[in-house]
Design a protein that fits this description.
This protein has 492 residues and is an alpha/beta fold. It is built from 16 helices and 15 strands.
């Protein structure tokens, strides 16, 4: 391997053993960051070691190191994908993600090592945010897996989603890592260092300042108490009748207790039972009477089978026992719900001049779904759900970020997951694990914001598509710098 450089360079990363250690360190940090319960700060640091290793490696070695780091990191998700998608899909998804992360690292390496321009720091965050935009637009899984969700415990950071969606968060995290890596690699051997390092620092501080300022903007507003309850016991075709009735009586008791605790709206989970239309009418009448007797708005998720059409729906009853909305889930889980017919209509209703939207579980992993609802001027999104236990934290936080993007609270009742309510800033208002009979319940006092869609809701994913354009620019051939600027090129 031949190395040519102008200017003094550190020897710290020259040894192949050191570069391997850096890749392993990145992998360990990625592992923490990409878990279903991620460590937020690990996501900021994870790309730094592998970028440094790649900057001082040949192309082939850099590719292998990037794959190693990504492979270690993605190992945290293998068991989950294996359970939810099966062996073949798990292998395909994992390999694709490893290749994509290798592409990010190699492309950034090419830009940084062949130029000392003041804008090279932006290559890595543009690639990350651009890919995040494309995946969320084309993927049948929406935004699930976005690097943005690593930051859900860093509340000031995620406020940028109200301006730029998930690409905005991904860009910030990538910008920090890229800036640190380039500073260590280039030091002052970069054109206009004050601009090159000052602009990223300004953008990072501005975004954090915006987040902190947004979190302090809390004038007195109206609130509503929303009750959430779930019973994990499954009702299927083989479930004994006495068990079926025990589950429904459990829900009746929980609704009564929540109403007694002051809840005005009560949400039950997704697919409590699947039944034919005749049985559905009987259960619908019982739920209507329950809502009326307790004086609450009641939302319950069920599956309807009419012989030709099977639907995943939620019924919403007002305090008079009237059915005010029947919402059909829009986004089905591939394979698991392949026999169900998706809905095509948004559903929302008003209580005392405040508008509430309806969703079911997986709907809220799609940014355009949440953004479209925000344009109705929602105060809160109400969602029955059914999770997989291990993804409970992630599922609730994905839904909460839709609220940050759109400017509304999210209340979500998940079987085999969490009962969770968050405000328009993504802060948890109430959270409790679901459980088997007699189940669990929780009441959240939810602040009702005025109906003002965010910038992101009004103007869409403008920033994300600008990042796509910027990422494409990083793919164009680059001329080497001439003169005294530091240049590092590696020939395998």
């Amino acid at each position: 391997m031949k190395i040519t450089s102008i200017g003094q360079r550190t020897l710290l990363f020259k040894a192949s053993g050191t570069r391997f250690a850096l890749a392993a360190l990145s992998g360990a940090l990625f592992y923490l960051a990409m878990k279903l319960t991620p460590v937020w700060w690990a996501a900021w640091l994870a790309p730094v070691p592998i970028l440094l290793a790649a900057f001082d490696s040949g192309k082939s070695e850099a590719r292998l190191l990037a794959w190693l780091a990504a492979g270690i990191g993605l190992a945290s998700e293998v068991a989950y994908y294996w359970k939810t998608t099966g062996p073949f899909a798990t292998i395909v998804i994992t390999l694709l993600q490893i290749l994509v992360w290798g592409f990010f690292v190699l492309r950034t390496r090419a830009v940084v090592t062949k130029s000392s321009g003041s804008t090279i720091i932006f290559a890595f965050p543009l690639l990350l945010a651009g890919m995040d935009t494309l995946v969320s637009f084309f993927s049948p899984h929406g935004t699930w897996g976005s690097y943005a969700y690593t930051q859900m415990d860093a509340t000031p950071v995620i406020q940028v989603a109200s301006l730029a969606g998930t690409p905005g968060i991904v860009f910030l995290v990538g910008l920090f890592a890229s800036t640190v890596a380039v500073i260590i690699h280039k030091r002052m051997g970069i054109n206009r260092p004050l601009l090159a390092y000052g602009l990223p620092l300004f953008l990072l501080l501005a975004a954090l300042g915006y987040g902190l300022l947004r979190l302090t903007d809390q004038p007195q507003r109206a609130t509503v108490k929303i009750g959430l309850t779930a019973i994990d016991d499954f009702i299927g075709k083989q479930t004994p009748p006495e068990k079926v009735e025990a589950v429904w009586r459990g829900y009746e008791k929980a609704v009564a207790q929540l109403a007694n605790d002051g809840a005005r709206i009560v949400i039950l989970p997704e697919k409590i039972e699947a039944f034919a239309l005749n049985d559905a009418e009987r259960r619908k009448a019982e739920l209507a009477e329950l809502a009326k007797s307790q004086g609450v708005y009641l939302i319950a998720g069920v599956q309807l089978n009419d012989g030709e059409r099977e639907s995943n729906v939620s019924w919403t009853f007002n305090a008079n026992g009237e059915l005010v909305a029947e919402y059909h889930k829009r986004h089905m889980v591939p394979f698991l719900e392949g026999d169900l017919i998706p809905g095509h209509e948004d559903k929302h209703f008003e209580i005392d001049g405040k508008r509430y939207g309806l969703a079911i579980c997986r709907d809220l992993i799609f940014a355009d779904f949440g953004r479209n609802y925000a344009r109705y001027g929602l105060s809160a999104m109400l969602a029955p759900a059914w999770d997989f236990y291990v993804d409970a934290w992630m599922a609730t936080q994905v839904a909460a970020l839709r609220g940050v993007e759109g400017g509304y609270a999210v209340a979500r009742a998940g079987r085999e997951g969490y009962l969770n309510a968050s405000d328009r800033y993504g802060r948890v208002l109430a959270r409790k694990r679901s459980d088997y009979l007699p189940g669990t319940r929780v009441v959240a006092e939810v602040t009702l914001e005025s109906a003002k869609p965010t910038f992101y809701a009004r103007f869409g994913n403008v920033f994300g598509w600008l990042c796509v354009a910027g990422a494409i620019l990083t793919l164009l051939p680059r001329r080497r710098d001439s003169g005294g600027a530091e240049i590092s090129d590696h020939v395998d």
